[in-house]
Write a structure and sequence with these properties.
The protein is of the alpha/beta class and 497 residues long. It has 23 helices and twelve strands. Among the domains are: 294 residues, Rossmann fold (3-Layer(aba) Sandwich), CATH 3.40.50.10420; 51 residues, no CATH class. InterPro entries: 4Fe4S_Fe-S-bd (IPR017896), 4Fe4S_Fe_S_CS (IPR017900), FTHF_cligase-like_sf (IPR024185), Helical_ferredxn (IPR009051), LUD_dom (IPR003741), LutB/LldF (IPR004452), LutB_C (IPR024569), NagB/RpiA_transferase-like (IPR037171).
Length: 497
């Protein structure tokens, strides 16, 4: 995975700054509450939602267990349908492949120096736009929210609605000042009404759709048995990118595979309701290789690893690879609602980003080491996840990795161990607790001593512990330890021993 956003501090510092921005908090509060309420109503319409959720979980888990077999099946099916499959171990390799394919598709005029893009988290993850720009190729985002972010020289802050941190007035100002530098200017006297903003974007993008020779996309799903790729969207810009250019290049994470067409029945119900609160997506585009009668003449599929194989090896953390990028967890998260997406220092913000980014990138940087702590562990994210990712469980698991110093730094295709920075005291405390919990006699003595001295316990911790207890009440110690109570009321030997 590409590096963290340049200059981004660790989450606590970035969040502290974001929380002080009242405009940002207002934008986020309005947007997330609106989306979450609509989603709740859409989900309530289905009596079998729990069964669909479990089915999605089982399909994803099965696929991940047999990913090696399904990847080979995808390559065979795409190749048989006229496409070409490329394998990318990391971001650098993926960017090099895409840049070479774009250059090979050029025809000697200005069109060879630009591409149009469908909204894609995978290409953001590898910083493809920046890599192409370094080669003299301009990548134009065509999703409305991504267009706003690009024109504003901004960063996405939400998986589904990248410009969620902007209000209509800000968007109008961006269109007025920036559109002329990227192509067709915004209409004169443009207002902030949604219809006028959408029309300005449509006029601006139409000339790019008609001129571009290369389209770049990701995919929501790849069907292994046929090699079919699926993109779901709400605006129609994706379909323009997928059908008009002569060459189509799709960069897809290896976890996006589903085994059969029948599996789409589950996800095409759960994804739209969880993301846009719609019964179905307005545009669902599917393509298998190439055909002489319609669509691009050349199709390339770039299968991206970039840390996914390492994530798959973690029995607890691998469930993050079930994610179908619906963003439901962001919309219910109290931390995201107040801090916004930029504070996470990654293209994957919110609860899913807090468990996915540290696994794809390792926990070696200050940003990634802080992300597992960017949560109150309230569990709202797990409740709304359409594939039942237990995000709180993975967060706690990753906190343990950070404290102990786990897989941290990627060097090429290798992950090496490096002790976590600034956590020596925490590691010592956790190891002491581990020792005590594995020695029942010591634990019993400590509990009795704590009970008998409870009247003199301080209300706050001394030294470095003051930072923790300054915003928390220390739990009161009971007059009698549980073990002593159990022995007194039930008799006999302590069953815990």
């Amino acid at each position: 995975m590409s590096g963290t956003y340049l200059g981004m501090p660790a989450f606590p510092e970035a969040a502290r700054k974001a929380v002080g921005d009242s405009t940002l908090r207002g934008n986020l509060r309005h947007a997330t509450h609106t989306i979450r309420d609509k989603r709740a109503r859409a989900v309530a319409e289905l009596d079998d939602w729990a069964a669909l959720r479990e089915a999605g979980k089982q399909i994803k888990d099965h696929t991940l267990r047999h990913l090696d077999r399904y990847l080979v099946q995808v390559e065979e099916a795409v190749t048989a349908a006229g496409g070409t499959v490329h394998w990318a171990a990391d971001a650098d390799e993926a960017n090099e492949i895409v840049a070479r394919l774009v250059e090979e598709a050029g025809g000697g005029d200005s069109a060879e120096h630009e591409v149009v893009k469908v909204k894609s988290m995978a290409t953001q993850e590898i910083a493809l736009n920046e890599a192409l720009e370094a080669r003299g190729v301009h990548a134009y985002e065509t999703d409305l929210a991504e267009l706003i972010v690009q024109l504003g020289r901004d960063r996405p802050s939400h998986i589904l609605v990248p410009a969620i941190h902007r209000n209509r007035g800000e968007i109008r100002d961006i269109f007025r000042s920036e559109m002329s530098e990227w192509g067709r200017p915004a209409p004169e006297n443009l207002t902030d009404t949604p219809a006028e903003l959408a029309e300005a974007a449509r006029l601006h993008l139409r000339e790019k759709f008609l001129r571009a020779r290369v389209g770049i996309s990701g995919a929501n799903f790849v069907v292994a048995e046929t090699g079919t790729l699926v993109v779901v969207e709400s605006e129609g810009n994706g379909r323009m990118c997928l059908t008009l250019p002569e060459t189509l290049i799709s960069v897809v994470g290896i976890e996006k595979i589903v085994p059969r067409w029948q599996d789409l029945e589950v996800f095409l119900q759960t994804l739209p309701r969880s993301s846009t609160a719609e019964r179905m997506n307005p545009y669902t585009s599917m393509w298998t290789g190439t055909t002489d009668e319609d669509g691009p003449r050349t199709f390339h599929l770039v299968l991206l690893d970039n840390g996914r194989t390492d994530t798959l090896a973690d029995e607890v953390g691998r469930q993050a690879l079930r994610c179908i990028r619906c963003s439901a967890c962001l919309n219910v998260c109290p931390v995201y609602e107040r801090a916004g997406g930029h504070a996470y220092g990654s293209v994957y913000p919110g609860p899913i980003g807090a468990i996915l980014s540290p696994q794809l990138r390792g926990t070696g940087s200050d940003v990634d080491a802080s992300l597992p702590y960017a949560s109150s562990l309230c569990g709202a994210c797990y409740e709304v996840c359409p594939v039942a990712i237990d995000i709180p469980e993975v967060l706690v698991h990753l906190r343990e990795r950070v404290v102990q110093g786990g897989p941290a730094v990627r060097h090429g295709n290798r992950v090496v161990l490096r002790p976590a920075k600034g956590h020596a005291a925490e590691r010592a405390a956790m190891r002491a607790a581990q020792w005590a919990f594995t020695h029942p006699g010591v634990l019993r003595t400590g509990q009795r001593l704590a009970s008998r001295t409870r009247r003199v316990h301080p209300r706050t911790l001394p030294g470095p512990g003051r930072a923790w207890s300054g915003s928390r009440d220390l739990p009161p110690v009971p007059a009698e330890p549980f073990r002593d109570w159990w022995q007194r009321t039930h008799g006999g030997k302590d069953g815990a021993e």
